[in-house]
């Protein structure tokens, strides 16, 4: 493969120092604020340094701001100077770093103080308002952009094209299921001009391979319990180690150590039961949810996981997924929120008749933007 001029020049420089010919990798460059209209995706699993990349851009901007008026002319389009950086974080993420200052661009291991150039927003309309209030700002870092509505992508694309604004998106593209996170993530991939993929070491104690995937698990009685495939897509909580069944933990894992039990069950069994319920045949779904809640060993989920994992020592850890509480609640939420196979009326009825945990479901439905009030008794009849 022919080397580009940059590689040739670097190789020649190393030779001039008396070093032997070696494989020259791309250098780690300071950020380029002169190029307008870029939309930069910074992708990788949790812990790969996406937000730390943003902190590096912030630090570079402070150096670049000390340069001359001539440099300003090369970094400014229509009054917006790309050396002026503003950091945006989701309002859902406001409690993630409780021990840091309110104006902190925080990441694992440190933070940068952003002063007035930081805000928490809930949607694309709030982003639009903040951009209009800061016409001098040319670079916008949108942390976890996949968490927002799809409209946000087009707001940013249009501002980028119109005024040369530069956007950086440190975000998860794959969720814990190793699927594209959502339609917003798909649009970010579609409209990006640059992509910086980051990896991390696999966080399994016996592995040092590159990791690309975010892994979700619960810690029950000191055991690692992998999240089932139909675990709720969004679970909002702080950035700390958790115990119990309410909030999961996250780490980054390689393909071999990324455990994801229940995917086949979801499509072979759970979703077809939801489809039957949507046609009016409710009892098979109700019976499965009741078995999961009250007699797990009688459920189709239990038999599926045992048949698949019980005889494989390396995969037996997947059975720990059954130790987590609220599995019936999660299955019902999956069918209601993501598959739209369960109506709100049926949801309310099943919660009532199966005595599912209302507090857990209310919070999770709210986190996943399908709020339903479950606190009161709704039905007395049984389907």
Instruction: Report the total helices.
Output: 12
Q: Strand tally, please?
A: 14
What Rg, in angstroms, do the CA atoms define? 24 Å
The proportion of strand residues reads 15-25%
Q: Write the CATH architecture name of the largest domain.
A: 3-Layer(aba) Sandwich
Oligomer: single chain
What's the rounded overall pLDDT mean?
A: 90
Output the CATH class name of the largest domain: Alpha Beta
Q: Kindly, what is the distance between the CA atoms of the first and last residues, rounded to a whole number of angstroms?
A: 67 Å
Q: Name the CATH superfamily classification of the largest domain.
A: P-loop containing nucleotide triphosphate hydrolases
Label the overall shape.
Answer: globular
Count of discrete domains: 4
Helix content: 25-40%
Q: Could you name the ranges where pLDDT drops below 50 across 5 or more consecutive residues?
A: 377-383
Which structural class is indicated by helix and strand composition?
A: alpha/beta
Describe this structure in words.
- It is a single chain.
- Helix content is 36%, strand content 19%.
- The chain is of the alpha/beta class and 383 residues long.
- It folds into 4 domains: 1-27, no CATH class; 31-198, Rossmann fold; 210-253, no CATH class; 263-367, no CATH class.
- The strands form 4 sheets. Strands 1, 2, 3, 6, 7, 8 and 9 form a 7-stranded mixed sheet that branches. Strands 13-12-14 form a 3-stranded antiparallel sheet, with no helix packed on it.
- Helix 5 (151-163) packs parallel to helix 6 and helix 8 packs antiparallel against helix 10.
- The model is unreliable at 377-383 (pLDDT under 50).
């Amino acid at each position: 493969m022919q080397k580009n001029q940059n590689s040739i020049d670097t190789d020649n420089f190393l030779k001039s120092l008396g070093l032997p010919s070696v494989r020259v990798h791309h250098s780690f460059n300071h950020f380029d604020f002169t190029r307008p209209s870029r939309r930069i995706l910074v992708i990788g699993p949790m812990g790969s340094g996406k937000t730390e990349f943003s902190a590096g851009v912030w630090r570079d901007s402070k150096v670049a701001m000390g340069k001359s008026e001539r440099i300003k002319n090369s970094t400014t389009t229509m009054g917006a100077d790309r050396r002026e950086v503003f950091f945006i974080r989701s309002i859902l993420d406001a409690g993630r770093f409780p021990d840091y200052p309110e104006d902190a661009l925080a990441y694992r291991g440190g933070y940068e103080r952003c002063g007035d150039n930081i805000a928490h927003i809930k949607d694309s309309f709030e982003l639009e308002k903040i951009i209009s209030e800061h016409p001098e700002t040319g670079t916008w870092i949108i942390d976890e952009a996949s968490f927002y509505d799809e409209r946000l992508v087009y707001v940013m694309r249009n501002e980028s094209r119109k005024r040369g604004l530069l956007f950086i998106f440190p975000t998860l593209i794959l969720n814990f299921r190793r699927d594209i996170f959502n339609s917003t993530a798909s649009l970010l991939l579609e409209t990006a001009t640059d992509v910086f993929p980051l990896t991390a070491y696999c966080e399994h104690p016996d592995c040092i391979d590159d990791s690309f995937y975010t892994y979700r698990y619960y810690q029950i009685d000191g055991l690692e319990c992998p999240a089932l495939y139909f675990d709720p897509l969004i679970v909002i909580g702080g950035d700390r180690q958790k115990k119990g069944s309410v909030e999961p933990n996250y780490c980054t894992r390689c393909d071999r150590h990324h455990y994801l039990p229940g995917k086949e069950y979801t499509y072979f069994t759970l979703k077809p039961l939801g489809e039957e319920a949507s046609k009016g045949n409710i009892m098979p779904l109700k019976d499965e949810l009741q078995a999961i809640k009250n007699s797990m060993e009688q459920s189709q989920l239990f038999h599926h996981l045992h048949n698949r994992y019980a005889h494989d020592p390396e995969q037996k850890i997947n059975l720990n997924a059954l130790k987590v509480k609220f599995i019936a609640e999660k299955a019902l939420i999956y069918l209601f929120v993501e598959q739209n196979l369960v109506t709100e009326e049926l949801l309310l009825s099943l919660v009532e008749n199966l005595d599912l945990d209302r507090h857990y479901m209310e919070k999770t439905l709210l986190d996943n933007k399908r709020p339903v009030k479950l606190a009161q008794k709704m039905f007395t009849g049984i389907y």
